[in-house]
Amino acid sequence: MVFPNIFHVGLLATLATASPYAAIKRQTTQLHESYDFIIAGGGTAGLTVADRLSETFPEKTVLVVEYGDIAYAPGVFDPPDTVWGGASTAPRPGIFSFQSLPNSEVKNRTAVVLAGQTVGGSSAVNGMFFDRGSRFDYDAWARAGSPEFDASEHKWDWQGLFPYFRKSVTFTEPHPDIVEKYGYSWDTSAFGGSTPIHSSFPPFQWADHFVARQAWEEMGVRVADECAGGDKEGVCWVPLSQHPVTARRSHAGLGHYASVATRPNYHLLVQHQVTRVVYPKDVSSGPPLVELRSLTNATVSNITAKAEVILAAGTFHTPTILQRSGIGPAPFLAEVGIPLVLDLPGVGANLHDHSGPTFSWNYTKPGNFSPMPSDMLDVTFAADAAAQFNDTPARGPYTLAMANSAMYVSLPNLTTSHTTITNKIRAMATDGSASSYLPAAYLSDPTLLAGYARQLSILSAFLSNPQAPSLEVPFATGTSSRAFLLHPLSRGTVRLNHTSPLSQPTLDYRSASNPVDFDLHVAHLRFLREMLATPTMRRYGAEETGPGAHVQSDEALREYVKDTLTFSFMHPCCTAAMLPRGLGGVVGPDLRVHGAGGLRVVDVSVLPFLVSAHTSATAYAVGEKAADIIIGSWRA
């Protein structure tokens, strides 16, 4: 078996002093007076674009401005951690931690959301699940922009994005012995890239991993050979964003910066905040100036872009950069005293995220499985696990990250009430009643209401499709599972902090504010309960502990959801949506901001709505496609 080049293994241990990072800029005095392209945000999509532009146009200069700094990016479960799964939420450098406003619909609880604050962005801190949505997700994006976007040469349906999924990652097949041991399956035609962004299957599983997979199969859920090729309804093996030899995290800071940092036309400035973009003349004549603020000494300066400015600061910071620039909803900008430059009501609207409750059980007839996460508390076992992780190739528990197995099920395949639910969505889209569940900012703007109505119409059709997933359940071990709601109807907002506009934004998450989200959560829980009646679960005497067998009515299940709901699985999106301006959109299919010259957005804020996947792979694909669009426009 031939493994990919592992030059960046050493970088993982010595990021702060490794030679590829010596070129990083820390002061604006180290910069040119102007650059052809300026990118705000050195994260997953931003670094992808910077890599491609600097490679294609060696005569043009590219500057990336990153809020964070270089930070070690461990995997979700790396030594010296001994509690499996705990490392993903433990505070560490390189992470933004946001807390939303209280949600009155869910007992005034708040969402806690983590995002990358480092070179590599969220790809350097996420859960490493590296899956793609179904073809129906991306086809729904295209329908959201139709007929207004139909004439565009840039297509964002599955056919238009699949080549960029393939290009964005290098997948390495597992060793035959590992395939035989765990039953891994894949289709190489879904991959094919040579980019130093790696994905692979781990050479380890906890001993009880097969229990849930067998139970799902006994429930009649299809077992899929490959879920990265557009067809995703079923039980899937999911690659991890890790190097196949070292099992260390593979992220954009390595693959799209450290690998190419010696290019003289590619500059990266760290520990600086892009505060706003400034149009010296009319907003339609760009590109704008970029205003920067040093996070070390608060110095403010302007950098000139000769070609264009690209915002890639993420779901929370891209809309706040726009709002500080006077680009956003006019009533809000007037409220905070920012002069209006361009009225775009969709800036900071349409916020949503994957959420879900926990389903849990106990075994009354234990299977005496080994090895299990509890074994990591044994000093000798943990030491052996650490030694295996440092083998070449890496082995053992530390290679697993969080999980690489999941079930994805459509609404028609999990509940007989699917027609009732989708009819309810269609009705509220038609009669306008859905507006009563939206943030107040929507109610005064007909474009936001029209855009939401179109989303509901598309989502009702999507959820009626027996091949389009509504539920995700990742699993690796244990006696509990999270029920991800993949396509929520609730919408929130991202707004500048009124009293401190340069501080972190105010998030109004509003999860489950639309009551149909509760209908979906309840349907998902009732479906998961069927696991316990399967022969596999009966063999081990599985008994439900959460919600519990005594919790039967829909109302009681809704209360359980309110008590246990995880508001964010760290996949916030859609706050600068790629929709027509008349539907509250912020960018068009070329990713140019409506009405603003020389300004584009390239990150997951441009998604019209969420996909049936964790968002990392989609962010890379968006970055790759955006780079081709930008390159094409400047070649022309």
TrEMBL record:
The keyword Flavoprotein applies. FAD binds at residue 274. The active site is at residues 571, 614. GO terms for molecular function: flavin adenine dinucleotide binding; oxidoreductase activity, acting on CH-OH group of donors. Residues 1-18 form the signal peptide. Residues 314-328 form the Glucose-methanol-choline oxidoreductase N-terminal domain. Pfam families: GMC_oxred_C, GMC_oxred_N. The keyword Zinc-finger does not apply. It comes from the Eukaryota. InterPro entries: FAD/NAD-bd_sf, GMC_OxRdtase, GMC_OxRdtase_N, GMC_OxRtase_C. Keywords: FAD, Flavoprotein, Signal. Its cofactor is FAD. One of its GO terms (biological process) is secondary metabolite biosynthetic process. Belongs to the GMC oxidoreductase family. PANTHER family: DEHYDROGENASE XPTC-RELATED, GLUCOSE-METHANOL-CHOLINE GMC OXIDOREDUCTASE. This is Glucose-methanol-choline oxidoreductase N-terminal domain-containing protein. It comes from Massariosphaeria phaeospora. The lineage of its organism: Eukaryota, Fungi, Dikarya, Ascomycota, Pezizomycotina.
